[in-house]
Amino acid sequence: MSIELRTVTTKSQLKEYIFLPKKLYVAYPNWVPPIYIDEWAFHNPEKNRALSTAEVIRVIAYQNNIPVGRVMGILNKKYNEQHGLKNVSFFNLDCKDDSHIAHALIRFIEQWGKDKGMTKIIGPFGFSDKDPQGLQIEGFEYLPVIVAPTNPSYLQPLVEAEGYQKEVDCVSYELVVPETMPSVYEKIADRILRNTNIQLVEFKNKSELKPHILPALRLMNEAYAHIYGYSSMTEDEMKGLADQYLFVLDPEFVKVIQTTKGETIAFGVGMPDISKGIQRAKGKLFPFGFIHIMRASRKAKQLNLMLGAVKQSHRGIGLNVLLGKSMLASAHKRGVTLMDSHLILETNKLMRSEFEKVGGTIYKRYRIYQKQL
Q1: Based on CB atoms within 10 Å of each CB, which residue in 14, 111, 171, 234 is the most buried?
Q2: Using one digit for the tens of pLDDT, what is the confidence trace for 185-237?
Q3: Exposure string over 313-324, b if 16+ CB within 10 A, otherwise e
Q4: CB 95 within 8 A of CB 62
């Protein structure tokens, strides 16, 4: 059966592109839709500043005029210039379990990249590691968490059949929330709190939290500069990210460490798992979807650790331990029994060892692929 590829150029085509996975994966009980208001924002140049420094193309595959797959090509000029690369990436790869469809979509982006003078393709990968990165290859029996990839298992062999090999893996750890931290960690945290130049800041509501978001994102820019795939954010991009996630942030699970002069030197962000709420809301916040999401947040027994950073000049003194102790205390208070580490680069041995020291085990794996063009 012949496959027709059409590039997305109109708003109606973009709507079909955004909602296509919902049709493709209707039979998969563990598929969780995105929050669609965020998807529209991702594809809107006025809201996603990354689109101003990148070239993109979106493609939908059709058979008998029925959409059966999609893919996005991204040429991130800013990132390539910063790192001296000639990379193109594919993203949003979703299709039926059909090698001909996958072949047509992937080869289209490869040729598009070649025509732009690129020499390597990676993916699935968005504008930076802040977007869902990689193809899930292990842990399909578990629900995905927000801002993490979700795809059926058949996509892995379809991609590998096109000659793609591993670029890097990310892993997620599952951790049973311990009743108490190891005594050595307790001593480290207590020692830090006795330091009169450092203070732990916790929040009761979003009004208290809001002024601390941008300083934390500025620290993230500094701390993540050398992490694979990270693209530094402008002030406008940071404001956009803050506005996007303030709605779903739970102030109780945001921890900030400052100096007494008010400088943010470390932070950690956790989020009660809202995957079931997003499923019930069908990815829509309005008119009533946000109720399902907020209810899922209140009832969640799993905490997803989303972001965290420690300023280079203050590493090695145990600030991560203090953040962990505070996060565990909040988890106990809310009756949380499990934690998800979110995606960690497999090469990040320091962070992985921290989770393994307290009994964390890898339960999901995601792979970014690469191929020379």
Answers
A1: 171
A2: 888 888 998 888 999 999 999 999 999 999 999 999 999 888 888 878 888 88
A3: eeeebbbbbbbb
A4: no
**Amino acid identity at 301:** K
| Owner of token pair 């090698």 | 99
User: Of the candidates 365, 338, 361, which has an alpha carbon nearest to the alpha carbon of residue 173?
Assistant: 361
In whole angstroms, how far apart are CA 196 and each of 95, 255, 258, 298, 324? 56, 18, 11, 35, 20
Neighbours of 101 (CB within 10 A): 22
| Superfamily grouping for domain 178-336 | Gcn5-related N-acetyltransferase (GNAT) (3.40.630.30)
If you write DSSP's letter for every residue of 265-283 in order, what string do you get?
Answer: EEEEEEEE--HHHHHHHTT
Residue 120 has φ and ψ, to the nearest 5°, of -145, 145
Pick the CATH number of 4-169 from 3.40.630.30, 3.10.100.10, 3.10.290.10, 3.90.180.10: 3.40.630.30
Q: Which amino acid is at 183?
A: S
Distance between first and last Cα of the chain? 28
Per domain, the residue ranges of the chain are: 4-169, 178-336
Cα separation, 267 vs 94, whole angstroms: 35
CA dihedral 155, 159, 164, 167 (to 10 degrees): -30
Domains 4-169 and 178-336 in one fold: yes
Alpha helix (H) residue ranges in the chain: 11-24, 36-42, 77-83, 99-115, 155-160, 183-193, 206-209, 213-223, 235-246, 275-281, 289-299, 319-334, 349-357
pLDDT in tens, 257-301: 999 999 999 999 999 999 999 999 999 999 999 999 999 999 999
Which two structure tokens, joined as six digits, stand for 88? Answer: 């193109």
Inter-axis angle of helices 235-246 and 213-223, nearest 10: 120
Cis-peptide into 287, omega within 30 deg: yes
